[in-house]
Amino acid sequence: MDIVLGTLQKLAKDGNRPHYAEDMKLLLDLLAIIGMNKEAFLGCINTSLPAREAGVLPSLVRRLFIHMAPELQEARVELEALVNKLFNLMIGICVEAPVDLINKMIADIIDQSKPYSLVGFAMRLIKGEERVEKAAGRLINSICWIAQQAAEGRSLAQMQLFARGPDGETPRIDVILEAVMDLLLPFLGPELRRPIYSVLEVLTDLYELSTDPAPNNFIKRAPFIAQGIATALCIPQHQVSGIFALAKGDWEKAVDLCKPFCDLDPQVLHEMMRFLPTIQKNCKSGVDLVKNIKEQVEEDYIKSRVKQISGNVVERKGTALDLFDLVDLDRNGTISLEEFRMCTLRLGFHLGEHRVLEVFSRCKKNVGSINRTDKGQELNAEEFQEALDYLQKKVAHITLSMIGNSLGYLMCKLVYLCFTLFLCCVFIFLAMNAFLSGGVFSAVVNSGLTISMGLSMAWKDAKDKSGGDDQRKMGALVEEIQDMVMNDQ
């Protein structure tokens, strides 16, 4: 087929028929495309030829522009050269030409310093409106930069399109989006474009921050995020910057934000920040912090209170309130059933369940309603004092009953002893008179005193011998009374 078409082309030229010769050349180019491979492409491409003739499809490109309007004939040469370059690049990519050759072809297309540059041609087409020119310039420069990076073998992730420049320049992706919006939405005024651009920049910075949430990256991007949010919301920048300053602990920059609410003293807050590392080592959240501080305060109070109670015990000045503070384990100002039962066990009392409930009901009933706790099964300090008094009275009453005594009997015995003491005083007075005056009466009195002294000494010896047995019997009786009182027998 190549031989036939080549022969026909030669005959057309010899017969002075250039039109048919061009048709044969076009068919040969189409056949070349069908069988094109890497080796054939490298054999056909010749960069030393003019731009409009170098490549594998010069005839096809010329045929595309043969019917151009007369007023565009001046641009025909440049257009043929640009389209020819683009066709060559597309075919080179399809046949996987060497990377160096592809990079050279791309640079030849976009480099404005070279003849027939696509960038220069595009800039001339949009020349006229300054805003469109600037947008197109930014878009073309960004695309050229991306093409250059791709030619060097970098992927999109390696290009870091979302990253700002070394001096905080706008990310490439934002430049491209802003340029596209300026070109496609020319009716948007600056009062609408600026907030939209700010939102795009904020989203870009947040995306970069999510990929690298390091503190240094946050510090680097925080000013741009604050500026973008302030511009998008049309609010003073210090309001947004103050929030970031509070997050970073920069109290000086947060003063303007906090002025409407409180008087912020940066020096005091810096002093407080000195203790945060120590606190953060001991707690993981605000709840832990409050809990640790509360426990520390309670621990200090308990230590001081125990020391005070110990001093009162040594001086024999202990009170029921001291005992109440020792029993109140959870420091809630009241004593529960379990705490009261534990207290009685430590005091040597083994109260039964019924006896404990009796004490609680009696104390809750007797204490006035002003200082009563709202918890039905707990005792406050006043009720605890009433409970101890009730137990003492109960033990005393049952003890007297068990030994055969009562309060009336003890009162009668007290009167009897007082009368006996009075008689002893009278006797002593009479004895003194007897010693002072001589006679039969004094002799009788002296003899009676001697006999009484001897009898009293003998009675004392007998009492000392039986004192041990009586003490053991009394101890057993006390234990029996205690069990009866505590267990409600």
TrEMBL record:
<dbReference type="InterPro" id="IPR018247">
    <property type="entry name" value="EF_Hand_1_Ca_BS"/>
</dbReference>
<dbReference type="InterPro" id="IPR011992">
    <property type="entry name" value="EF-hand-dom_pair"/>
</dbReference>
<feature type="transmembrane region" description="Helical">
    <location>
        <begin position="414"/>
        <end position="434"/>
    </location>
</feature>
<protein>
    <recommendedName>
        <fullName>EF-hand domain-containing protein</fullName>
    </recommendedName>
</protein>
<keyword id="KW-0106">Calcium</keyword>
<feature type="transmembrane region" description="Helical">
    <location>
        <begin position="440"/>
        <end position="459"/>
    </location>
</feature>
<keyword id="KW-0472">Membrane</keyword>
<keyword id="KW-1133">Transmembrane helix</keyword>
<dbReference type="GO" id="GO:0005509">
    <property type="term" value="F:calcium ion binding"/>
</dbReference>
<dbReference type="InterPro" id="IPR002048">
    <property type="entry name" value="EF_hand_dom"/>
</dbReference>
<keyword id="KW-0812">Transmembrane</keyword>
<feature type="domain" description="EF-hand">
    <location>
        <begin position="315"/>
        <end position="350"/>
    </location>
</feature>
